[in-house]
Design goal:
mainly alpha; 48% helix; rod-shaped
Length: 95
């Protein structure tokens, strides 16, 4: 009988503690991350990349960088198909 009463008390204490803990859903965490990322982009006026003479996909380090070069830099040779997606075999193929 003592074990049953002890079990009930421990269980009730656990339920009480659980109900009084702050909880966040996974979707709320994702929203917070997205909002922070958007805020960083708006705050920073300095571009992440700059035109520095590189022209080829083999000189890029990411799809984002290749997109920047294609959209902002002269004489790049990264969009052989002319479809606006650079470096499809190396970086941007899963778009």
């Amino acid at each position: 009988m003592k074990k049953v009463v002890l079990g009930i008390l421990i269980g009730a204490g656990g339920v009480y503690a659980w109900n009084h803990m702050p909880h966040q859903s996974a979707s709320a965490d994702v929203i917070e991350i997205d909002e922070s990322a958007e805020q960083r982009v708006e705050v920073s006026d300095k571009p992440r990349f700059k035109c520095d003479g590189r022209e080829y996909c083999s000189q890029m380090t990411s799809c984002e960088e290749a997109m920047y070069f294609l959209e902002n830099c002269p004489n790049v040779k990264m969009d052989g198909e002319g479809d606006g997606v650079p470096c499809e075999r190396q970086w941007c193929g899963n778009r």
